[in-house]
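Take our chain:
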Amino acid sequence: MMPVLVIPLGDLAALVLFCVLWLGYGPIVRRLGRGTINMGLHSVRSLWMRAMLQRDNRIVDSALIGHVMHSASFFASTSLIAIGALLGVLTSIDRLQPALEGLSMGVPVPRPLLELKVLLPLAVLVHGLFKLTWSLRQMNYTVALMGAAPRVPADPARRDALAEAIGGVLSSAVLTFNDGIRSYYFAIAGLAWLAGPGWLAGAAAWLVAILLHRQLGSKVSRQFKLARALVEAGHAAEDLPP
């Protein structure tokens, strides 16, 4: 007969908080809009695509996209290794249970609950792997659009619409890539559950606080906003009649 999993109230509350922060962070950042680095980059990418349309030689643009695709491939491969390692822990949990219980100060942990604690970071990494591979597909779409894009469409309105559309596909790809990268952070926070529910809740809250600070209050976020404003002003000046 299969053992029944009964999650203590404290563990359940910590798990719910973790899932809310993990799955809710991306939508929250998107709701904050241009005030964050991630969302403010959309206009920059659209301007990049607009500049790309005016170039005969697009080798630099291709190299930049290739660099991001290489990074996404690397992290996707690394995710597979990490997933395999956690599956190994899960299949050897009988031998590892004393050591894992040692992380919780020797407090006995029922095997079904211990398996759930190992499954949490595993689920986060699997979710991140899907994000990373979907990001790669979107980057391939972006490359195809860049290769097919004509040089400076005659109608400025068509040019700007095309740049905005290609920039939108690229932004979607990079935001999905960011979601995949974040899975590493949250998987590490999920491992804190082995030490107890308080550690899980604290690690998740601490992680989100750091990520939001980077997006909104860090030195680089202030420098980015200034640089973005200057870039947008420069492109606006190019549109002014001589």
